[in-house]
Amino acid sequence: MIEVLPLEVRTRLFPARPAAVPEIRDFIRQCTAEAPLSEADGREVSRAVFRALLDSAGPAGAIQISCRTYPDYFEFDVLHAVAEPPQPEAVRDSFADWITETLRREGLSREAVARELGVSAKTVSRWVGGETEPRMRELRRIQERFGAVRLN
Questions:
Q1: Which residue in 32, 61, 108, 109 is a FRET match for 80, CA 20 to 30 A apart?
Q2: How many structural domains compose the chain?
Q3: Residue 53 maps to which CATH number?
Q4: What domain range includes position 13?
C-alpha cells in the first residue's frame, strides 16, 4: 500500500550574517502560519539556525532553510549552502541600531565594550556606524555579554 500525502516545500537561501536573522524568523513564521511551532520546537529550530550561521560565517557564507509542510506536522532542514546568497532587502532594525541602543542602555563606551569583547574600539565604531557587522565568533561573545541580539 502506498500512502500519498499532500506536501508543500519552501526553500530559501540566507546570508550567514546576523542581519539575516529577522528574515529567517519571518520565513519560519510564514511556513508555520497555519499551525505555529510550540515554544520548544521554536527553540530547537533557532538553535539549528544559529549553529548553521556560526558554521557558515564568512563573506560568501550562506545557509539554506527548507520547510516541508505535511498535513499534521512540519520538517525543517537547515543546511550550509555553497552558492552566493541574494542580498537581503532592507532590514527594519539593523545590528548597528541594536548595538547603539545596547551601549546606551548599559551606559558603556565603545572602548569599554571593545576591551570586554576583545576587539578594537575602531571595530565597535564600525558596528555602531553600520559599516560592518560582527563575525559569528564575535557575535557569540556579544550574546554571552548582552544576551540575545534582538532584531525585528
A1: 32
A2: 2
A3: 3.30.1550
A4: 8-81
